[in-house]
Amino acid sequence: MFAGGQDGSVYALDAATGCVHWASSVESQVRSGMAVGEVGGNLVVFFGASAGHLYALDGTTGKQLWKMRPGEHPAATQTSTPVFYKGRPYVGSASREESLSISSGYLCCTFRGSESAIDAATGRVLWKRYMIPEVAKDRPKNRRGSKVSGPSGAGIWTAATLDPEHDAVYVVTGDNYSDPPTALSDALVALKMSTGEILWSKQYTAKDVNNSSCQLADKVNCPDTEGPDYDFASPAILVSLPNGHRALLLGQKSAVVFAVDPDRRGQALWQARFKVARKPDSNDRMYELDPDKGGGLFALRADNGERKWQTPAPGCGGRPNCSAAQSAAITGIARTVWSGSEDGHLRAYATSTGKMVWDYDTAREFQTVNGAVGHGGTIDVAGRVVADGMLFSVSGYPARGGTCNVLLAFHIEP
Q1: Do 212 and 317 have their domain in common?
Q2: Which of 36, 68, 100 is the last residue of a domain?
Q3: Are residues 111 and 205 in the same domain?
Q4: Which residues are CB-neighbours of 41 under 8 A, at least 6 positions away?
Q5: What are the tens digits of pLDDT across the range 288-312?
Q6: How many domains is the chain partitioned into structurally?
Q7: With contact defined as beta carbons under 8 Å apart, do 77 and 95 qualify?
Q8: Per residue in 108-124, pLDDT tens?
């Protein structure tokens, strides 16, 4: 198995024992998941890093084969896990510029998100499609007197969803960083897989223009069109329905799940709304965590959105600075769905009923196979990996007091 760390380390580990086959390093924090593909008969590992580079390493030796930047902007970053298919990794580009806006002297903003198809052998860009066609230019000052450049934003934070049978790739986008708003922010965009041509698109939150300055008291660089920051933070899911049709399932930060028909240019099928923890019109994130609220797991029918079951989170038992939220990606197999929680618990649920069948608290000290003492904690962002009768999970996330230095392996008993 392959794993990357915040210090730029990359490891090839023996899945059964944790023994290190090789270790390598790159110039910045590894931000994406790992994609593995065969190129010219050799195993190659692809991943993205915080400084905006996409890397290709030899899967057998760890030797760097090439690196390139899909996004040319100085603040570009790679959180999108590459998706490999027939000699091409497909990868989106996002940006740290949204956070740079907190500086009163920063001219916000000029980044624009994009999706690219890369030649796996050389790192050459085969096609690139911007989510904002026009280059940012100077705009009128905002009402606080700050200089503005735009349009900007619409980054692609997540992995693409490939549909080779229909020569299509589906991506979801984030919000705009500065005015004016654009048509492909907070949107589902269908691209031609072979050329990158836009086939169709569907926007879900218009005029969502927001940056990190909006969370500050002076809001110096906050855009006049201050939206609710409803990015898409998880990829679209392509499923087959019982009636023979297909659907794309989209989960937005608005706490709404959408289902659309990819074969009818994104025609709406259904939507389901969940209770949100913060007001939809509020960007105030300086809240205290409630240890007994939030979280829970939901199961919906893919054909009509009907809620099949709902299992509330057990809560933190009153532990301070703790949240029971289950914001990490979930992983489903035949009869079980695995979910990590902000409180450090890793739980398994029956897919048929939602009943919790297993619970393991990772927020504790571990004696690791490499001799170091590690401590688990918050589980967030990434999903669990299940393969060959084993489950792999990171524990610890650098937010809300989390640490980030434990990789755990479990044997799944039949």
Answers
A1: no
A2: 68
A3: yes
A4: none
A5: 677 777 778 999 999 999 999 999 9
A6: 3
A7: yes
A8: 999 999 999 999 999 99
